[in-house]
């Protein structure tokens, strides 16, 4: 995605109403002329220190809905032969905290965020939830100041940038999702996960057990809860698939 935040805003404001905003690629041109943009880039930690600054949480709420709606619309029309399950998983693969935070970093939003001193000193400009929320807020700001079509274009140029590479024949299911779908289709209770944490705070180790309907449980280890969950789910799937497709030599 070869875009910067200024590139994205330049495209969003490329109409007669905002033509005078295009005097250069410096972000301040857009901060001055897009009324909602300074708010979109203001985290609540900055508002706590400076109460006169409105934070971006309301814009984040709006942007989240706009992104999900646009992605849903595009997937619906692109994958006409796919069912709801595929579309839901495809949307989840494109719209999640990790994906949106990566987009925010690519755009350079981390360099433009208004953060409180404490949040900034603790690395807030690199936190996934803050970055993802700021990107959602920027999309909402574009929608409010430039219109629905421009916001959709911004989403297409970022969240949906690699959609053409999404092969319909490749499963989007990660092991945890695949395990959940398997049990749902079988009409059985969803897998349950329990977690244990050990090790020092700066380098924790996670042990996760997935408990299946029927009493079986499988374990996974990792440096994060998510990693350990996926490994536990993969261990369960390997056993399930082996039982469904036994070796001819067995």
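^ Assign residues to that structure.
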């Amino acid at each position: 995605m070869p875009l910067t935040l200024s590139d994205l805003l330049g495209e969003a404001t490329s109409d007669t109403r905002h033509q005078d905003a295009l005097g250069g690629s410096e972000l301040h041109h857009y901060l001055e002329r897009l009324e909602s943009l300074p708010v979109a880039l203001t985290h609540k930690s900055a508002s706590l220190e400076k109460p006169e600054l409105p934070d971006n949480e309301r814009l984040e709420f709006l942007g989240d809905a706009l992104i999900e709606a646009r992605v849903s619309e595009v997937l619906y029309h692109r994958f006409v032969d796919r069912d709801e399950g595929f579309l839901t998983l495809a949307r989840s693969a494109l719209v999640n905290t990790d994906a949106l935070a990566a987009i925010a970093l690519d755009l350079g939003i981390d360099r433009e965020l208004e953060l409180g001193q404490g949040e900034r000193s603790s690395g807030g400009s690199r936190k996934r939830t803050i970055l993802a929320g700021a990107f959602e807020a920027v999309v909402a700001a574009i929608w409010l100041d430039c219109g629905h079509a421009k916001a959709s274009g911004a989403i297409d140029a970022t969240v949906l940038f690699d959609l053409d590479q999404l092969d319909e024949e490749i499963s989007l299911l990660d092991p945890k999702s695949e395990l959940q779908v398997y049990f749902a289709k079988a009409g059985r209770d969803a897998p349950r996960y329990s977690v244990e944490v050990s090790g020092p705070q700066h380098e924790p180790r996670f042990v996760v057990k997935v408990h299946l309907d029927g009493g079986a449980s499988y374990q996974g280890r990792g440096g994060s809860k998510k990693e350990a969950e996926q490994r536990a789910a993969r261990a369960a799937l390997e056993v399930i698939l082996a039982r469904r497709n036994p070796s001819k030599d067995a």
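The CA atoms of residues 6 and 27 lie 6 Å apart.
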